[in-house]
Write a structure and sequence with these properties.
15% strand, Rossmann fold, alpha/beta
Length: 157
């Protein structure tokens, strides 16, 4: 089983994912590490990714993470903004999706504070526009403290 924390960039997927993986004593993966250099350069330049960019990336995630953990547990932080992206990931093995949801204002302020991430805040609106939140296995509020988020997530697992 792979628990996927999904949502827009800056929602806290990686922070909460690492905390959950540590709590469960399981492996953690950040989907950003599976982007090809061309995707990273495209985002750095201020251009949003399209489906042509995302599908090879998602298949790479499925091949390397979900398939590898079919009989074990792992935690994955992945934007997986569209329902069809999550449906594709489900074809690789057992997956549960949890949306990390926050207001545009909160997420924007978080992105403005980042200094070493390739995702510019100028692309945030395109992520909110692409986000299709349902179906999923639960919603975690990014407005809560990280400790409260973990407690909320534990209740949903």
């Amino acid at each position: 089983m792979v628990y996927v924390l999904f949502g827009v960039s800056g929602s806290g997927k990686t922070t909460l994912g690492k905390l959950l993986a540590n709590h469960l004593d399981q492996s953690f993966y950040d989907a950003d590490d599976f982007h090809p250099p061309s995707n990273i350069e495209k985002m750095k330049s201020g251009s949003p990714l399209n489906d042509t960019d995302r599908y090879p990336w998602l298949r790479n995630i499925g091949d390397h993470i979900i398939t590898a953990h079919e009989n074990s547990t792992a935690v994955l932080a992945c934007s997986a903004l569209k329902r069809e992206y999550r449906q594709l990931l489900e074809t690789y093995g057992p997956v549960r999706f949890y949306l990390i949801e926050g207001s545009f204002e909160l997420i924007s302020s978080r992105l403005e504070q980042r200094d070493r991430h390739f995702m510019p805040s100028s692309l945030l609106q395109s992520q909110f526009d692409a986000l299709q939140p349902l179906p999923n296995h639960g919603v975690i509020s990014a407005e809560l403290s990280i400790e409260e988020q973990l407690l909320q997530l534990e209740k949903l697992l």
